[in-house]
Design goal:
- By secondary structure, the protein is α+β, with helices and mostly antiparallel strands.
- The protein folds into 2 domains: 3-59, Arc Repressor Mutant, subunit A (Orthogonal Bundle); 71-155, Glutaredoxin.
- It contains 7 helices and 4 strands, in the order H-H-H-H-E-H-H-E-E-E-H.
- The chain has helices at 3-12, 20-31, 36-46, 50-59, 79-83, 86-97, 142-150; strands at 71-76, 110-115, 127-129, 132-134.
- A hairpin with a 2-residue loop joins strand 3 and strand 4 (132-134).
- The radius of gyration is 19 Å and the shape is elongated.
- The structure holds FE2/S2 (inorganic) cluster.
- FE2/S2 (inorganic) cluster binds at residues 76, 78-81, 117-121, 124, 126.
């Protein structure tokens, strides 16, 4: 990660130790996860023990210590979605992106995750990308759905 960005974030909070959580949140917002070297930099500049930074980062589930993609592709594997073909949709998403569930593409564009029912069962099989619900998705629609995020310009028109 560009350490100048980390420095700028720390600077924004005047190196104030009480803003440690906010600093980590801003880094995560920038990178979609907390790189170890960024946490080391925070500890060094803010003069707090690294163990404090890392325990804060592991305590809050909203932080990720693993690289995460710009777009989170969440496939619902709840019962209703499952019986309507969610496993096949998941397989197709994995094939299209060349990664398995739980992994992130090497260009840090996509991460695949699964969830068990989000209460929109009528839309099954359901894929949620970022905040967008893609309901009643068939395997043949997966490629086009992902392309919208790969090439955002195709979303227009
Ligand atoms: S099972 Fe998928 S939304 Fe309920």
């Amino acid at each position: 990660m560009d350490m100048q960005k980390v420095d700028a974030i720390i600077e924004k909070y005047n190196k104030d130790e009480t803003a440690l959580l906010a600093v980590l949140q801003d880094i995560q917002a920038e990178k979609n996860y907390l790189p170890r070297e960024a946490m080391e930099r925070v500890a060094e500049i803010m003069e707090v023990p690294f163990s404090r930074v890392s325990s804060l980062a592991t305590f809050f589930s909203s932080f990720s210590l693993e690289p995460r993609g710009e777009h989170i592709v969440t496939i619902c594997m709840g019962t209703a979605c499952h019986v309507r073909g969610a496993p096949l949709v998941l397989k197709e998403v994995e094939r299209e992106l060349g990664i398995a569930n739980g992994e992130t593409t090497s260009d840090l564009k996509f991460t695949i995750e699964t969830v068990n029912c989000v209460g929109a069962c009528a839309l099954g099989p359901l894929v949620i990308i970022d905040e967008n619900y893609h309901g009643n998705i068939s395997t043949s629609e997966v490629e086009e759905m992902l392309e919208q995020y790969q090439n955002p310009s195709k979303q227009e028109g």
